[in-house]
Design brief:
Elements: H1 8-13, E1 42-46, H2 51-62, E2 66-71, H3 80-86, E3 91-95, E4 113-116, H4 123-128, H5 130-148, E5 156-160, H6 167-171, H7 195-209, E6 215-220, E7 223-224, H8 233-243, E8 249-253, E9 258-260, E10 262-263, H9 264-275, E11 283-287, E12 293-295, H10 296-307, E13 312-316, E14 325-326, H11 331-337, H12 345-359
Parallel strand pairs: 1-2, 1-4, 2-3, 4-5, 5-6, 6-11, 7-10, 8-13, 9-14
Antiparallel strand pairs: 9-12
Length: 363
């Protein structure tokens, strides 16, 4: 979800292309846009330059769809993946800031599907900018819903919420794990900066529930894989192990916290199936893998094995605000899509390390 929320001044300085011709590729190359020929469906993906957005866009294009991406590129993700995507048949990329009220006004009213991924994300970003997190995430959601209401034949509005909505219930001791979607949501204390992200997503879910639009809300849980940045335990541990000297150690925080992890390819397949699944219409679905639920220590052990160095684990204190357990119940998603996550932790971490070793750790 590639959206960091540029300031008003910066977004005005970066409205780079006249509205009549503002489609561009990630590397400044004109995208091919809508060519003659029939596409299966037409998609708009906000925050589509990010980790999940680029992957779902590429998958939809490969299936013969027309896919338009809106992103402000404030995270600097104009990379090879987006250059490849931009030259695909049916792809267009619009560099816009969704905080601008007119950001989507030049787009057409004939999208079949809207996938709203744009948000301020990342724990450190949220902790340092809690007000912006609340304000910007809600405003971007409002603008996207307003645009969706202009569509003539919209089939589905998919909104990426978060597993953070369960944080207060876990803290109060009222949360079953694996967690079903219908549990009562309890708020964490409002003065805590991390609460701002959860609140923005709960508010976003409520807006969509009462919008009158055909929707599906997904709550992603610990999705990982290539090109996800460094603000996640898997790439962070991979970097530590990659840089560590043999027979030394890596520091691992929250070693006893438990998670179930979902590789990006599995998450993308679920999202693709959700889009037109009748059973997912007007529903809230967890997005992730129900099992195995593993400790962070176990993740570190897998990382060390994949990197291939003799390394010890130095246990560090728990990360403040980090949930002790997190694993989604996936019954509703499985019943709606017929899909269960298939890629195991060892395979997923191995594929992730291969990518980071070739693209990030070489720098």
């Amino acid at each position: 979800m590639a959206w960091r929320g540029a300031s008003i001044d910066s977004r005005r300085q970066s409205c780079f292309i006249p509205r009549a011709d503002r489609s561009l590729s990630a590397g400044g190359i004109q995208g091919e846009g809508r060519r003659p020929g029939r596409f299966v469906s037409k998609f708009l993906i906000t925050g589509g330059a990010g980790f999940l957005g680029e992957r779902i866009a590429s998958a939809l294009l490969a299936d013969g769809n027309e896919v338009h991406i809106v992103d402000n590129f404030s995270r600097g993700q104009k990379d090879k993946a987006l250059e490849t995507l931009a030259t695909s048949r049916g792809a267009r990329i619009f560099q816009e800031d969704l905080l601008a009220p007119d950001a989507l006004s030049g787009l057409s009213p004939d999208y079949d599907f809207i996938v709203h991924l744009a948000a301020i994300v990342g724990v450190q970003n949220v902790l340092t900018r809690p007000y912006d997190t609340l304000h910007d995430n809600v405003l971007m959601h409002q603008i996207t819903i307003r645009f969706a209401r202009r569509q003539k034949l919209l089939k589905r509005f998919v909104f990426a919420s978060t597993s953070e909505v369960y944080a207060g219930s876990l803290r109060s001791g009222d949360l079953p794990v694996p967690t079903p979607e219908n549990v009562a949501l309890t708020l964490t204390p409002l003065h805590e900066p991390r609460s701002s992200y959860m609140l923005s997503k709960i508010y976003g879910e409520a807006m969509l529930l009462h919008s009158g639009l055909p929707f599906t809300i997904v709550r992603p849980h610990n999705i990982y894989g290539p090109r996800m940045g460094m603000a996640h335990v898997v790439p962070q541990l991979l970097e530590k192990a990659h840089k560590a000297r043999p027979d030394s150690f890596i520091e691992v925080f929250s070693v006893d916290h438990r998670r179930s992890f979902c590789f990006i390819d599995d998450a993308v397949e679920m999202l693709k199936r959700v889009l037109d699944a009748p059973a997912a219409l007007n529903q809230v679905l967890n997005l992730g893998a129900e099992s195995p639920e593993v400790t962070v220590r176990r993740v570190a052990e897998v990382v060390i094995s994949i990197v291939g160095k003799p390394l010890a684990i130095r246990s560090m204190p728990p990360t403040p605000g980090s949930p002790v357990r997190r694993a989604p119940q996936m019954t509703r998603m499985t019943e709606a899509t017929g899909y269960v996550a298939r890629i195991g932790l060892e395979e997923g971490v191995g594929r992730t390390y291969d990518w980071y070793r070739r693209h990030i750790f070489v720098r």
